[in-house]
Amino acid sequence: MPAALSRALQLLAVLAAVAVVAVLPTYLELFTLMQLTLFAAMGVLALSLGFIWGFGGILSFGQTAFFGLGGYTYAIAAINFGDSTNAILLAILFPALFAAALGYFVFYGRISEVYLGVITLTVTLILFNVVNSTAGDAYTIGQARLGGFNGIPSVPTFNAPYTPDAVLTPEAGWWVTGGALIAVYLLMRLLLASPFGRIAVAVRENETRAALLGYDPRLIKLGVFMVGGAVAGLAGALYVNWGAFVGPTIFSLSLSAEIIIWITVGGLSTLIGPVVGCFLIQFLTAKIGSQQAFNANLVLGVILVGFVLLLPKGIVPTLKNALLGLGRKAKRRPAASTAARTQIAGAE
Protein backbone atom coordinates (compact mmCIF):
# COMPACT_ATOMS: atom_id res chain seq x y z
CA MET A 1 0.00 0.00 0.00
CA PRO A 2 1.49 3.38 -0.99
CA ALA A 3 2.53 5.58 1.94
CA ALA A 4 0.30 8.46 0.81
CA LEU A 5 -2.75 6.20 0.61
CA SER A 6 -1.97 4.71 4.01
CA ARG A 7 -1.72 8.16 5.60
CA ALA A 8 -4.98 9.23 3.94
CA LEU A 9 -6.79 6.16 5.30
CA GLN A 10 -5.40 6.79 8.77
CA LEU A 11 -6.56 10.41 8.64
CA LEU A 12 -10.04 9.32 7.55
CA ALA A 13 -10.15 6.77 10.38
CA VAL A 14 -9.22 9.43 12.94
CA LEU A 15 -11.82 11.86 11.58
CA ALA A 16 -14.43 9.09 11.69
CA ALA A 17 -13.50 8.34 15.31
CA VAL A 18 -13.83 12.01 16.25
CA ALA A 19 -17.24 12.16 14.56
CA VAL A 20 -18.41 9.04 16.40
CA VAL A 21 -17.28 10.42 19.76
CA ALA A 22 -19.06 13.69 19.03
CA VAL A 23 -22.46 12.28 18.01
CA LEU A 24 -22.85 9.20 20.23
CA PRO A 25 -24.55 11.02 23.16
CA THR A 26 -27.33 12.01 20.78
CA TYR A 27 -28.24 8.41 19.93
CA LEU A 28 -27.41 6.38 23.06
CA GLU A 29 -29.09 5.97 26.41
CA LEU A 30 -27.26 7.24 29.46
CA PHE A 31 -26.43 3.73 30.74
CA THR A 32 -24.88 2.68 27.43
CA LEU A 33 -22.97 5.95 27.20
CA MET A 34 -21.55 5.47 30.71
CA GLN A 35 -20.55 1.93 29.80
CA LEU A 36 -18.73 3.16 26.70
CA THR A 37 -17.03 5.82 28.83
CA LEU A 38 -15.61 3.03 31.00
CA PHE A 39 -14.51 1.13 27.89
CA ALA A 40 -12.71 4.22 26.58
CA ALA A 41 -10.91 4.78 29.91
CA MET A 42 -9.74 1.17 29.86
CA GLY A 43 -8.74 1.64 26.22
CA VAL A 44 -6.25 4.29 27.36
CA LEU A 45 -4.91 1.75 29.87
CA ALA A 46 -4.60 -0.84 27.11
CA LEU A 47 -2.63 1.64 25.00
CA SER A 48 -0.17 2.19 27.86
CA LEU A 49 0.83 -1.48 27.98
CA GLY A 50 0.46 -1.93 24.23
CA PHE A 51 3.04 0.82 23.71
CA ILE A 52 5.71 -0.41 26.11
CA TRP A 53 5.21 -4.10 25.24
CA GLY A 54 4.59 -3.92 21.53
CA PHE A 55 7.11 -1.20 20.64
CA GLY A 56 9.51 -1.23 23.57
CA GLY A 57 9.66 -4.96 24.17
CA ILE A 58 8.89 -4.45 27.88
CA LEU A 59 6.24 -6.81 29.27
CA SER A 60 4.94 -5.36 32.53
CA PHE A 61 2.73 -7.75 34.48
CA GLY A 62 1.89 -4.95 36.91
CA GLN A 63 0.64 -2.12 34.73
CA THR A 64 -2.19 -1.62 37.20
CA ALA A 65 0.41 -0.24 39.64
CA PHE A 66 0.60 2.96 37.57
CA PHE A 67 -3.13 2.82 36.84
CA GLY A 68 -3.91 2.68 40.56
CA LEU A 69 -1.38 5.37 41.45
CA GLY A 70 -2.97 7.66 38.87
CA GLY A 71 -6.43 6.97 40.29
CA TYR A 72 -5.44 7.58 43.90
CA THR A 73 -3.38 10.64 43.00
CA TYR A 74 -6.32 12.17 41.17
CA ALA A 75 -8.75 11.40 44.01
CA ILE A 76 -6.50 12.84 46.73
CA ALA A 77 -5.58 15.93 44.72
CA ALA A 78 -9.16 16.60 43.60
CA ILE A 79 -10.44 16.42 47.18
CA ASN A 80 -7.73 18.75 48.47
CA PHE A 81 -7.72 21.21 45.58
CA GLY A 82 -11.46 21.21 44.95
CA ASP A 83 -10.60 21.35 41.25
CA SER A 84 -9.85 18.55 38.80
CA THR A 85 -7.47 20.40 36.47
CA ASN A 86 -4.25 20.13 38.47
CA ALA A 87 -5.42 16.78 39.84
CA ILE A 88 -5.40 15.32 36.31
CA LEU A 89 -1.92 16.69 35.67
CA LEU A 90 -0.64 15.18 38.92
CA ALA A 91 -2.29 11.87 38.04
CA ILE A 92 -0.14 11.81 34.91
CA LEU A 93 3.05 13.16 36.51
CA PHE A 94 3.25 11.04 39.66
CA PRO A 95 2.97 7.60 37.96
CA ALA A 96 5.52 8.78 35.36
CA LEU A 97 7.98 9.69 38.12
CA PHE A 98 7.28 6.40 39.90
CA ALA A 99 7.93 4.55 36.62
CA ALA A 100 11.17 6.51 36.23
CA ALA A 101 12.36 5.51 39.72
CA LEU A 102 11.36 1.87 39.31
CA GLY A 103 12.68 1.68 35.75
CA TYR A 104 16.02 3.18 36.74
CA PHE A 105 16.77 0.36 39.18
CA VAL A 106 15.45 -2.26 36.75
CA PHE A 107 17.09 -1.18 33.51
CA TYR A 108 20.32 0.23 34.88
CA GLY A 109 20.60 -2.80 37.15
CA ARG A 110 20.51 -4.93 33.98
CA ILE A 111 17.70 -7.09 35.29
CA SER A 112 16.39 -9.51 32.69
CA GLU A 113 12.93 -9.07 31.21
CA VAL A 114 11.59 -12.14 33.02
CA TYR A 115 12.46 -10.59 36.38
CA LEU A 116 11.05 -7.25 35.19
CA GLY A 117 7.62 -8.85 34.91
CA VAL A 118 7.99 -10.38 38.38
CA ILE A 119 9.11 -7.06 39.87
CA THR A 120 6.21 -5.06 38.41
CA LEU A 121 3.81 -7.77 39.60
CA THR A 122 5.31 -7.63 43.09
CA VAL A 123 5.08 -3.82 43.17
CA THR A 124 1.38 -4.10 42.33
CA LEU A 125 0.85 -6.54 45.20
CA ILE A 126 2.76 -4.28 47.59
CA LEU A 127 0.69 -1.24 46.62
CA PHE A 128 -2.53 -3.21 46.99
CA ASN A 129 -1.64 -4.36 50.49
CA VAL A 130 -0.36 -0.94 51.56
CA VAL A 131 -3.50 0.88 50.41
CA ASN A 132 -5.71 -1.88 51.78
CA SER A 133 -4.18 -1.32 55.22
CA THR A 134 -4.93 2.41 55.48
CA ALA A 135 -8.28 2.25 57.25
CA GLY A 136 -8.74 4.70 60.10
CA ASP A 137 -8.58 8.43 60.70
CA ALA A 138 -4.79 8.37 60.98
CA TYR A 139 -4.38 7.66 57.26
CA THR A 140 -5.28 10.95 55.66
CA ILE A 141 -3.52 13.17 53.13
CA GLY A 142 -4.79 16.66 53.64
CA GLN A 143 -8.57 16.42 53.61
CA ALA A 144 -8.62 13.03 51.85
CA ARG A 145 -9.12 9.91 53.96
CA LEU A 146 -7.63 6.87 52.22
CA GLY A 147 -10.29 4.60 53.68
CA GLY A 148 -8.35 1.33 53.45
CA PHE A 149 -10.39 -1.50 51.92
CA ASN A 150 -13.42 0.82 51.76
CA GLY A 151 -11.62 3.16 49.36
CA ILE A 152 -12.33 6.84 48.81
CA PRO A 153 -16.00 7.55 47.95
CA SER A 154 -17.56 10.70 46.50
CA VAL A 155 -14.46 11.74 44.58
CA PRO A 156 -15.05 15.03 42.71
CA THR A 157 -15.48 14.39 39.01
CA PHE A 158 -13.99 16.44 36.19
CA ASN A 159 -14.86 20.09 35.87
CA ALA A 160 -14.10 22.74 33.27
CA PRO A 161 -10.45 23.88 33.49
CA TYR A 162 -9.93 25.83 36.73
CA THR A 163 -13.69 26.27 37.15
CA PRO A 164 -14.71 23.93 40.01
CA ASP A 165 -18.38 24.91 39.83
CA ALA A 166 -18.67 23.84 36.18
CA VAL A 167 -18.85 20.07 36.77
CA LEU A 168 -18.98 18.05 33.56
CA THR A 169 -22.16 16.20 32.66
CA PRO A 170 -22.02 12.48 31.75
CA GLU A 171 -22.15 13.48 28.08
CA ALA A 172 -19.21 15.86 28.52
CA GLY A 173 -17.42 13.15 30.50
CA TRP A 174 -17.77 10.84 27.50
CA TRP A 175 -16.39 13.52 25.18
CA VAL A 176 -13.39 14.04 27.47
CA THR A 177 -12.70 10.31 27.86
CA GLY A 178 -13.23 9.47 24.20
CA GLY A 179 -11.21 12.51 23.18
CA ALA A 180 -8.42 11.46 25.55
CA LEU A 181 -8.34 8.02 23.93
CA ILE A 182 -8.01 9.53 20.45
CA ALA A 183 -5.43 12.09 21.64
CA VAL A 184 -3.27 9.42 23.32
CA TYR A 185 -3.44 7.30 20.17
CA LEU A 186 -2.34 10.22 17.98
CA LEU A 187 0.42 11.27 20.37
CA MET A 188 1.78 7.73 20.42
CA ARG A 189 1.75 7.58 16.65
CA LEU A 190 3.69 10.85 16.51
CA LEU A 191 6.11 9.55 19.14
CA LEU A 192 6.71 6.36 17.16
CA ALA A 193 7.34 8.40 14.02
CA SER A 194 9.91 10.53 15.85
CA PRO A 195 13.60 9.58 16.19
CA PHE A 196 12.94 8.40 19.75
CA GLY A 197 10.21 6.03 18.60
CA ARG A 198 12.33 4.61 15.80
CA ILE A 199 15.23 4.05 18.19
CA ALA A 200 12.88 2.37 20.69
CA VAL A 201 11.76 -0.09 18.03
CA ALA A 202 15.39 -0.67 17.03
CA VAL A 203 16.26 -1.44 20.67
CA ARG A 204 13.35 -3.87 20.82
CA GLU A 205 14.57 -5.65 17.70
CA ASN A 206 18.27 -5.82 18.57
CA GLU A 207 19.52 -4.19 21.73
CA THR A 208 23.18 -5.02 21.08
CA ARG A 209 23.16 -3.53 17.60
CA ALA A 210 21.50 -0.34 18.87
CA ALA A 211 24.20 -0.03 21.54
CA LEU A 212 26.93 -0.47 18.94
CA LEU A 213 25.37 2.38 16.95
CA GLY A 214 25.89 4.67 19.94
CA TYR A 215 22.48 4.59 21.62
CA ASP A 216 21.92 3.76 25.28
CA PRO A 217 19.25 1.00 25.37
CA ARG A 218 18.74 1.50 29.10
CA LEU A 219 17.85 5.16 28.65
CA ILE A 220 15.53 4.42 25.73
CA LYS A 221 13.73 1.68 27.67
CA LEU A 222 13.42 4.00 30.65
CA GLY A 223 11.80 6.65 28.45
CA VAL A 224 9.35 4.13 27.00
CA PHE A 225 8.53 2.86 30.49
CA MET A 226 7.86 6.41 31.71
CA VAL A 227 5.49 7.10 28.82
CA GLY A 228 3.59 3.91 29.64
CA GLY A 229 3.37 4.92 33.30
CA ALA A 230 2.11 8.40 32.46
CA VAL A 231 -0.60 7.09 30.11
CA ALA A 232 -1.68 4.48 32.66
CA GLY A 233 -1.92 7.25 35.26
CA LEU A 234 -4.19 9.24 32.94
CA ALA A 235 -6.33 6.12 32.49
CA GLY A 236 -6.60 5.87 36.28
CA ALA A 237 -7.86 9.44 36.53
CA LEU A 238 -10.41 8.80 33.77
CA TYR A 239 -11.57 5.64 35.55
CA VAL A 240 -12.04 7.42 38.88
CA ASN A 241 -13.91 10.22 37.11
CA TRP A 242 -16.25 7.61 35.64
CA GLY A 243 -17.17 6.03 38.98
CA ALA A 244 -16.41 8.89 41.43
CA PHE A 245 -14.76 6.21 43.58
CA VAL A 246 -11.37 4.56 43.99
CA GLY A 247 -10.42 1.55 46.11
CA PRO A 248 -7.59 -0.98 46.47
CA THR A 249 -9.14 -3.21 43.81
CA ILE A 250 -7.79 -0.77 41.25
CA PHE A 251 -4.46 -2.56 41.80
CA SER A 252 -5.99 -6.00 41.20
CA LEU A 253 -3.93 -8.73 39.55
CA SER A 254 -6.95 -9.92 37.57
CA LEU A 255 -7.06 -6.57 35.77
CA SER A 256 -3.32 -6.81 35.05
CA ALA A 257 -3.90 -10.19 33.43
CA GLU A 258 -6.93 -8.89 31.54
CA ILE A 259 -4.88 -6.10 29.94
CA ILE A 260 -2.52 -8.72 28.51
CA ILE A 261 -5.54 -10.59 27.10
CA TRP A 262 -6.79 -7.38 25.46
CA ILE A 263 -3.49 -6.88 23.69
CA THR A 264 -3.16 -10.54 22.69
CA VAL A 265 -6.64 -10.53 21.18
CA GLY A 266 -6.29 -7.15 19.45
CA GLY A 267 -2.74 -7.59 18.23
CA LEU A 268 0.72 -6.82 19.55
CA SER A 269 2.95 -4.19 17.88
CA THR A 270 -0.07 -2.15 16.84
CA LEU A 271 -1.77 0.80 18.52
CA ILE A 272 -5.32 0.18 17.39
CA GLY A 273 -5.12 -3.52 18.31
CA PRO A 274 -5.10 -3.03 22.11
CA VAL A 275 -8.09 -0.68 21.85
CA VAL A 276 -10.03 -3.14 19.68
CA GLY A 277 -9.21 -6.00 22.03
CA CYS A 278 -10.14 -3.91 25.07
CA PHE A 279 -13.56 -2.89 23.72
CA LEU A 280 -14.34 -6.39 22.47
CA ILE A 281 -13.39 -8.23 25.65
CA GLN A 282 -15.11 -5.72 27.92
CA PHE A 283 -18.27 -5.94 25.82
CA LEU A 284 -18.24 -9.75 26.03
CA THR A 285 -17.53 -9.65 29.77
CA ALA A 286 -20.41 -7.22 30.35
CA LYS A 287 -22.79 -9.40 28.32
CA ILE A 288 -21.72 -12.56 30.14
CA GLY A 289 -22.03 -10.83 33.51
CA SER A 290 -25.54 -9.60 32.74
CA GLN A 291 -26.75 -13.07 31.69
CA GLN A 292 -24.95 -14.92 34.51
CA ALA A 293 -24.90 -18.05 32.35
CA PHE A 294 -21.12 -18.54 32.26
CA ASN A 295 -18.15 -17.68 34.40
CA ALA A 296 -16.53 -14.60 32.85
CA ASN A 297 -13.00 -15.63 33.87
CA LEU A 298 -13.46 -19.04 32.28
CA VAL A 299 -14.59 -17.43 29.03
CA LEU A 300 -11.60 -15.07 29.07
CA GLY A 301 -9.28 -18.03 29.54
CA VAL A 302 -10.84 -19.86 26.60
CA ILE A 303 -10.58 -16.74 24.44
CA LEU A 304 -6.90 -16.29 25.33
CA VAL A 305 -6.03 -19.93 24.54
CA GLY A 306 -8.03 -19.81 21.33
CA PHE A 307 -6.31 -16.68 20.05
CA VAL A 308 -2.85 -17.91 21.02
CA LEU A 309 -3.43 -21.15 19.09
CA LEU A 310 -5.52 -19.93 16.13
CA LEU A 311 -4.75 -16.21 15.75
CA PRO A 312 -1.39 -15.67 17.45
CA LYS A 313 -0.92 -12.27 15.79
CA GLY A 314 -4.29 -10.95 16.96
CA ILE A 315 -7.29 -9.51 15.15
CA VAL A 316 -5.84 -6.31 13.67
CA PRO A 317 -2.58 -7.74 12.21
CA THR A 318 -4.48 -10.75 10.81
CA LEU A 319 -7.05 -8.52 9.09
CA LYS A 320 -4.30 -6.24 7.80
CA ASN A 321 -2.38 -9.17 6.30
CA ALA A 322 -5.57 -10.53 4.75
CA LEU A 323 -6.38 -7.18 3.12
CA LEU A 324 -2.81 -6.82 1.84
CA GLY A 325 -3.04 -10.34 0.41
CA LEU A 326 -6.27 -9.48 -1.42
CA GLY A 327 -4.64 -6.32 -2.78
CA ARG A 328 -1.69 -8.29 -4.15
CA LYS A 329 -4.02 -10.81 -5.81
CA ALA A 330 -6.01 -7.98 -7.40
CA LYS A 331 -2.79 -6.54 -8.84
CA ARG A 332 -1.69 -9.90 -10.25
CA ARG A 333 -4.96 -10.52 -12.10
CA PRO A 334 -4.71 -7.59 -14.56
CA ALA A 335 -1.08 -8.45 -15.21
CA ALA A 336 -1.99 -12.08 -15.89
CA SER A 337 -4.84 -11.02 -18.20
CA THR A 338 -2.51 -8.72 -20.16
CA ALA A 339 0.04 -11.51 -20.57
CA ALA A 340 -2.65 -13.90 -21.81
CA ARG A 341 -3.95 -11.39 -24.37
CA THR A 342 -0.40 -10.83 -25.59
CA GLN A 343 0.11 -14.57 -26.11
CA ILE A 344 -3.19 -14.89 -28.00
CA ALA A 345 -2.33 -11.94 -30.23
CA GLY A 346 1.08 -13.46 -30.97
CA ALA A 347 -0.47 -16.79 -31.86
CA GLU A 348 -2.85 -15.10 -34.29
Fold and architecture overview:
This protein has 348 residues and is mainly α. Helices cover 75% and strands 3% of the residues. It is built from 13 helices and 4 strands. The protein has a two-stranded antiparallel ribbon. It has a two-stranded antiparallel sheet with strand order 3-4. A hairpin with a 2-residue loop joins strand 3 (159-160) and strand 4 (163-167). Helix 2 (30-54) runs parallel beside helix 6 and helix 6 crosses helix 7 (195-205). It is globular and about 75 Å long. The model has no long low-confidence stretch (mean pLDDT 89).
Question: What would the keywords be for this entry?
Answer:
single chain; 348 residues; mainly alpha; two-stranded antiparallel ribbon; two-stranded antiparallel sheet; 4 strands; 3% strand; globular
